[in-house]
Amino acid sequence: MKQLGLEIPEILIPASHVDVHKWGVIACDQFTQNESYWKNLYEEIGDAPSTLKMILPEFFLNQPDVLQRQKNTVKAMKEYLAGDVFAPAIKSMLFVERTTPYGRTRKGIIAAIDLEEYEFSSNSKSKIRPTEAVITERLPPRKEIRINAPLEIPHILLLANDKDNLLFSAAEKAASGNPIFQVNLTANSGTYTGWKIESLEELQQVGENLSHNENFFLAVGDGNHSLAAAKAVWEMKKQSGEPSSSPFRYALVEIVNIFDPGLVFEPIHRVIFHCQGENIFNFLSDSLKSRIYQKETAESMMDFVNEHPSSFALIYEKNGKKQFYCFLTEGTNLLVAELQSALDDFLRQECGEIDFIHGEKELLSLHGDDTVAFFLPPINKDTFFETINERGSLPRKSFSLGQPEEKRFYFECRRLK
After folding, report:
1. Domain range for 350
2. Residue-wise pLDDT tens digits, 159-180
3. Which residues in 150-170 are b (16+ Cβ under 10 Å) and which e?
4. End-to-end alpha-carbon separation of the chain, Å?
């Protein structure tokens, strides 16, 4: 599979006596404004071994105890490695299946990627490419964690341009026997099942054929900054004389087929705190060439945006009542790129703080006189690879793979030291 930039990893999963239901938890960049989600999760897991102890949810990044939390993640990793938490390492790729609370099922392949075959510049032409712009200012804390951590616990999802399902059907066929784990996930988020891939011969042949794809085959779907940090750390270590066989040269990922019917592209919405709705309404009215429609309900607003890929909605409160405005742009550029550029201009001129929200329910739950929300349409996955190949990376936080509960859960680990 080297022709696709893939390697066979040594994977660590929890030992048979560990409660796998409490072991796996949602990606750290979910529910960033939902304190109750994380509070309930900590209460449910309690003292049980869990990947929750080895990650830092982004909700806590602005808390006063964030540095202690970072130290605790590394401490937990070392304790788990020294104890009897992990089963013996499995040198294999895995075939995995995820069901979600939305009635969808997607299939994936757990593998390592060679970071020599990945480049995160916006105009990358590498075998494995970014899909969204990497904000370099966000890399230092992630790099520090990776340098000090004895384990990696990834939530990285790579998208495969496998329209004929060649790679994934071969992987499913090669995954023989009983599953090595079956998990009912926390917070009623579905199930996760994994099988060891016993034979790589057919995958090798498929990989050789797919490596001649006219554009490229693998792109980052989730975990964009985590993978960029892994690449940056490897470049640092390589320059300091780290051997080419170093575990830091590789990163553990899950690969999913962009054409899997169980994989749904969802927009990532925006919210700006500490600003007035009418101010940003006036700014966007002047800066964007748009037709503006006022809607009476959230449902009619969402229907309009979902039917018009070049539109977005602005939501704010006036006299205690939510106002819904749909902006239909001329559609000369990718909508998310046009809107994000305008919001960046607004924030340079006015006070305010932006955040990115997964899921319409989370977005619509936000309220306040100084809170302005933006509801965005999804991106068309049928032309996704073509778009990346032609224009390079999309703006940050352009899309999401499914609803928040459908995100990848931390489960598999790999040693770095």
Report:
1. 268-377
2. 999 999 999 999 999 997 899 9
3. ebbbbbbbbbbbbeeebbbeb
4. 24
Question: What are the structure tokens assigned to 369, written together?
Answer: 């006189």
Do 337 and 195 lie in a common domain?
Answer: no
Whole-angstrom CA distances from 173 to 157, 179, 191, 203, 260 are 21, 13, 21, 10, 16
Distance CA 80, CA 273 (A): 40
Higher pLDDT, 152 or 389: 152
DSSP string for residues in 154-167: ---EEEE--TT-HH
Q: Is the pTM of this model over 0.85?
A: no
Would 392 be classed as within a structural domain? no
What is the tally of structural domains in the chain?
Answer: 2
What tens digit of pLDDT does each residue of 184-195 get? Answer: 999 999 999 999
Tokens 């970071």, located at residue: 115
pLDDT at 132: 86
Helix extents (H) in 240-393: 277-287, 298-307, 335-349, 360-365, 384-391
Instruction: State the Cα torsion 157-162-167-171 to the nearest 10°.
Output: 50
Q: Are residues 248 and 279 in the same domain?
A: no
Helix/strand/coil for 199: coil
